[in-house]
Amino acid sequence: MAHTPHPRIGELLNELETVAAVVAAAQSALAAGSMVDLRGLEERVAQLCEGLAALPPADCAGFSAAMAELVAELDNLARAVQAQRDEAARDADGEAAGSPAQAARAYGRKPPPTRGGG
Fold first, then answer.
1. Rg of the chain over CA atoms, in angstroms?
2. Which helix (H) or strand (E) holds 24?
3. What whole-number distance in Å separates Cα of residue 5 and Cα of residue 111?
4. SS3 helix, strand, coil % of the chain, rounded to 5?
5. Distance CA 7, CA 18 (A)
6. DSSP string covering 49-104, please?
7. Cβ-contact 53, 63 below 8 angstroms
8. How do residues 66-111 score in pLDDT, each as one tens digit?
9. Has this prediction a pTM greater than 0.85?
10. What are the extents of the domains in the chain?
């Protein structure tokens, strides 16, 4: 008796391709210096993983390479987002993000005195 593929395979393959395209577009936008909106991406990836986990093992095998590639691209995207955040967090004088002076300016207050009396 021949194996009949699970009916959701096509749907999951389409979702995998869509998520991969969203990740690629986000990477391109970040590389161009644009901000990206990744709302919903984590949920889509989670739903994709849940859908794949529900498949019989014989039907999952075809997704292994594509999922491994997606994981690698998501890791690359995470590094690119973090790099953009780090860059955006530095203001003109190179002050570290989250410093007391930066926080004070964000709330319209006078920065606290620096150590050393300045």
1. 22
2. helix 9-31
3. 64
4. 65, 0, 35
5. 18
6. HHHHHTS-HHHHGGGHHHHHHHHHHHHHHHHHHHHHHHHHHS-TT-PPTT-HHHHH
7. no
8. 999 999 999 999 999 998 888 877 754 566 556 666 666 666 666 6
9. no
10. 9-106
